[in-house]
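yo

u said u wanted the structure for the complex thing, so here. seqs first:
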Amino acid sequence: MLRRVLFASACLSLVAGCSLSGGGGGSAPAAGDHVVTLVTHDSFVAKQETLDAFKSATGITVKPLAGGDAGALTNKLVLTKSNPIGDIAFGVDSTFASRALAEDVFAEYRSPEADKGSQRYEADSSGRLHAVDVGDVCLNVDVAGLAAKGVPEPKTYDDLVDPKYKDMLVVEDPATSSPGLAFLLGTIGKYGPTSWSEYWTKLKANGVKVVSGWEEAYNQDFSGSAGKGPRPIVVSYASSPSAEIGDDGTPRTKALLDTCYRQVEYAGVLAGAKNPEDARKVLDFLLSEQFQADVPEQMYVYPSREGVRLPESWTKAAPLPKTSQTLPADQVSANREQWVQQWRTLVVG
Amino acid sequence: MAHASSGLIPQGTGWAFAALVPLVFLGVFFAWPVLAIVRLGLRDGGVGAVLASAGTWELVGFTLGQAAASTVLALVTGLPVAFLLARCKVAGTGFVRAAVMVPFVLPTVVVGLAFRALWPDGGVLPIVLANAFFNVAVVARTVGGLWAHTDRRAEDAARALGASRPRAFLSVVLPALLPAIGSAASVVFLFCATSFGVVLVLGGARHRTLETEIYLRTVELFDLSGAAALSLLQFAAVLAVLLLGGLARRRRETALSLRGNAEVVRRPTGGEWGVVGVAFAVVLTLLVPVVGLVLRSLSTVDGWSLAGYRALSGTGERGTLAVSGVDAAVNSLRAATDATLLALFIGVFSAVVLIGLRRGRAPRGVGEVLDTALMLPLGVSAVTVGFGYLITMDALPGDLRTSPALVPLAQALVVTPLIVRMVLPVLRAVDERLRQAAATLGASPWRVWREVDLPLAGRSLLAAAGFGFVVALGEFGATSFLARPDSPTLPIVIARLMSRPGQLNSQMAYAACALLMVVTVAAVLLIERLRVPSGGEF
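structre next:
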């Protein structure tokens, strides 16, 4: 028996030997290399070719470090601001930007690329945050599903309270879900900080379903995606239909472009970065034509730069809405908790 | 280890010193980060207001209530399975042994979705069922581990003296198993009290626990003082449960004559078949959501397809992932192996120390402190630990905050208590007389442990290692905080794929779940091979 145990532990240690030496941490950069740690949200993906091209042009290796969703990322940056875990951060969004700015997480730096379009989405005038991409949270509808129920596609927020659409909408809880919060903010932007609750009372009366996250809403309750759920209207992104193109080339779903709330994702050099010079170059790179062209396919959002060509499936299925609701960042951060609380009492309570 | 000591008092002190090894590990990688983040929250004040609010106490009530209900359900369904695995010679036990572990590794978001498909509106019942679903394995393994080694003769004697089967079970078998049942119950309770994904998906905004509220306040609202207040409450509740469990365990400890499994296993007779039937029914029920996931991984809007499985060799639709599904599986295996070895070392060392402390008359309370401290990581929110790491680990050499070593370290924190709880009841049941006999014959304490304890506990040790490995494979909470994007584990990859639109991504997510299940079953079967050779080995 003892021999057996020893044998087993020997086997295990062999595997462990692999695991400890076998580069679980990826390729370690050699001494003298320029390495920039890019703290990002979980949705960050970049094409390896693009990163390699940047490296051969500048000698800088970008090392991404995931920090959770936009909220978790922002809070991590705030907690570590005296000794940051990276040199540059990407993924703080318009909901959390004012917190990051108030806590002085970011250093001042104005990129020479900043006037190529990203200035349209500036968080404030201090030049600490640069918009890298924008995404719109909009209602998505299942085109065939609505047709089967014999109702026309809704167009506006107001349509949703029409009894025609009773029990057809599923939304995410704004307390636990970023698109859920964006949709709530969209209705606040549309109806104003006092009347939005009346709108939600009517939505509730019309059978809106609330789930805690996008995964449940989109994959399970929504009828237009792979899950084929019961509800044909869901809160998702303007870009989602580009992933739902059938074999015949037509999108199965559609975003309602009059129901959108705009979220902007920012990048900035961290105050206290160990490698600020190279971090600035990485920021320029995030705003460059080359990186921006990858943004739609890699991260399902729209580039902040002007004149970047969108992939074909996007021009067909996922155009960026011309007008979207937005609320000033400081107004959001001042009222968010109270709005969410009010919403909970109203819709769930 | 305290060897070559003449008197009892120095020996006790020696064990107390040995206790420092696990305590230092826990201190550095658990207590320090947790206390640092809680202190940061307390600094801002406002704790009193949170504690005074009625909503907070509703959270406490719901948290404890659903955990208690889930624990009872897991015990009731897990015990027949434990009986089957430990005592019965029937076809299919190997399959049951592997199958019962599968739920444990499934990512909570996936299980949440599976249960949501059956109960579209969520609610308390599916939360309790899902929590129990995850934890039947804990009961089956922990209780089964001891049961497989307890001597049948006392039970047979009771029967021969005229006791009915239920009577013999209640008065002979159950008391002997109580330490393991207590261990299982406390682990399951802690898992259920702090389960996050299940409560979030199935409870939504209506049913919230301390754990989901701590997450919300820390991550979304940055209300660290509120989170700190709730963490303290959770901590107090967990501590209370652990102390109660400890009391129950202490009063029930008995030396049992442990036997080799081959002597204990036999064909069931009479009413035992009923229990076996229940056990198989439980396992089949557990497989319903599992089969559902597999079917889901194969079905598309246009019919059946293996596209999700083929996609595992790639990085998802248009490169959703940084690595392929297969690479992620390899990452999972690596991290879980490191975590298991680390946890095995600390867990077995701690179990030996705990027993040594009792036998060696160490200063009172040291053992209790160590035992409780080892369990605490199961009862503290992963987000609290994760954020704690951020503000402490840069003080260690090499700035551990961004090190890949953090993943196995954090997983080991979760696995160690399981190993302790599985190994300790068996080691404690080793008859002291055997040890004394060996010592009288001149064996050193190390030799006694090697020749007496290890052979008797060897199987449970391997079983515990296997269980720990599987837990580490499926661990999501701590890993999601610490894994780096270039080396994600399989559960991280699944969560990521689930959060993207597109049929291929969602199919690949379900296929990755199936892969995780296959890896789990393979690991369990491999360990089975190691621990069950051709016959009895004692």
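The first strand of chain A starts at residue 34 and ends at 40. DSSP finds eleven helices and ten strands in chain A.
cya
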